[in-house]
């Protein structure tokens, strides 16, 4: 089995975290750009990766799954090759493609590696974003990459590729999102699942301070309250998940440094919604909080 060698600093902090919550651990996490709602989420993801397991980050759109993956990459000091899944994803998008090139003024055929083969050959992370957007017949191509074999036969070169030490897979999924399909059991069983909730309260407050230009504590508190109201409305079925995207909220915070917060929310959140009733709902919340 392919196991990671955890950096000594992380190994020590993980061990200490079993005994008590460590501010030092959270500071190290913050350097990677994402502080999870609970330390255990990141501890469990790091533990799974260090044991050679694949990690599937599951959560609503804009909840920070990609930032979570980037933080894992940061903690392991591992570069990360990425796959952005869509219905157009094919073998070439995953593994690479052949192209014409010149060597010593002679035309030759070269193979350009894709993100999967690059990550395997370099022993780094592979991040598969929105994995359930891909067609069900595409992802079985990499089943051997995702199980204990860590091996694939490249259909374009017939080369058998075995991942180097350090290779690991992190994937993200938005369940029930438009254009997605359920993961088949064979694929899902190749992952350890980490459920990522929205950031709220003090953690969201700190995220805004760390990742936007907004410095006015009063306005930041209002944005945190707005986010909480949006998340509650989503849970009650009054709004789609897009309305509560943390990514969109951070955009609104940034814009509010130079334009009125209500207009910033209009551009970053409200105008992205499809239904007039949802737009009116968010607009009413905005008017109530920001006046």
TrEMBL record:
UniProt superkingdom: Bacteria
Gene3D superfamilies recorded: P-loop containing nucleotide triphosphate hydrolases
InterPro entries per record: AAA+_ATPase, ATPase_dyneun-rel_AAA, CbbQ/NirQ/NorQ/GpvN, P-loop_NTPase
Domain AAA+ ATPase: 51-197
Protein name: AAA family ATPase
């Amino acid at each position: 089995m392919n196991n990671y060698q955890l950096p000594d600093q992380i190994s020590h902090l993980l061990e200490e975290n079993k005994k008590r919550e460590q501010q030092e651990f959270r500071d190290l996490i913050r350097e990677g750009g994402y502080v999870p709602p609970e330390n255990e989420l990141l501890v469990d993801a790091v533990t799974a990766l260090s044991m050679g397991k694949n990690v599937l980050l599951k959560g609503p759109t804009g909840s920070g799954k990609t930032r979570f993956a980037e933080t894992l990459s940061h903690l392991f000091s591992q570069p990360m090759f990425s796959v952005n899944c869509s219905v157009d994803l094919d073998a070439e998008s995953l593994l690479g493609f052949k192209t014409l090139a010149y060597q010593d003024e002679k035309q030759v055929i070269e193979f350009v590696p894709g993100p999967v083969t690059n990550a395997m050959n370099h022993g780094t992370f592979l991040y598969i974003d929105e994995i359930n957007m891909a067609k069900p017949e595409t992802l079985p191509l990499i089943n051997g990459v995702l199980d204990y074999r860590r091996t694939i036969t490249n259909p374009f070169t017939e080369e058998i590729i075995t991942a180097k030490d350090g290779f690991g897979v992190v994937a993200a999924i938005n369940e029930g999102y438009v254009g997605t399909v359920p993961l088949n059991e064979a694929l899902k069983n190749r992952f350890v699942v980490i459920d990522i909730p929205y950031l709220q309260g003090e953690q969201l407050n700190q995220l805004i301070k760390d990742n936007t230009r907004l410095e006015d504590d009063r306005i930041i508190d209002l944005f945190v309250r707005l986010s909480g109201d949006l998340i509650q409305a989503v849970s009650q079925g009054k709004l789609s998940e897009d309305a509560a995207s943390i990514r969109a909220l951070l955009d609104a915070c940034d814009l509010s440094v130079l334009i009125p917060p209500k207009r910033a929310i209009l551009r970053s959140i409200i105008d992205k919604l499809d239904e007039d009733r949802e737009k009116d709902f968010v607009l009413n919340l905005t008017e109530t909080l920001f006046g």
